[in-house]
Amino acid sequence: MHELSVAQSILSIAENAAPKTTNTTITSIHLQIGELSGIELEPLKFAFSVIKKDTILEHAELDIELIRGEAYCPQCKSEFHMHYYGASCPNCGNYFIHVSKGREMKVVNLVVDEHEDAVC
Fold this sequence. Notes:
This protein is α+β, with helices and mostly antiparallel strands. It has a domain at 3-68 and 102-114: hypothetical protein PF0899 fold. It has helices spanning 3-17, 41-51, and strands spanning 24-34, 61-67, 70-72, 79-81, 98-101, 105-114. Strands 2-1-6 form a three-stranded mixed beta sheet, with helices on one face. A hairpin with a 6-residue loop joins strand 3 (70-72) and strand 4. The longest helix is centred in the N-terminal third of the chain and has 15 residues, at 3-17. The chain is elongated, with a radius of gyration of 19 Å.
């Protein structure tokens, strides 16, 4: 289950990017995950929910934008939606295609909440 290591990487990126104050919490993490990245979304969400406990991301939610897989066929010059690796060009049947989109996994931004210290 490589989703656990992906979740740990997301946690690390967010912790390193967050302001270094004691009253900071991250409430949302916007991700872009490609359809062809090999990352399963439900196991990723579960792994993240487990490892975020007792961190500044404890209340953070993952906001996942799925990036559609796209490919280009150099033989017939067509672009098409690619659902999975190993697919051929739907127009000419060529298997020597170039994936142009859908492999990415990016942390796009964080929503940070900085609380004021309570004065007694």
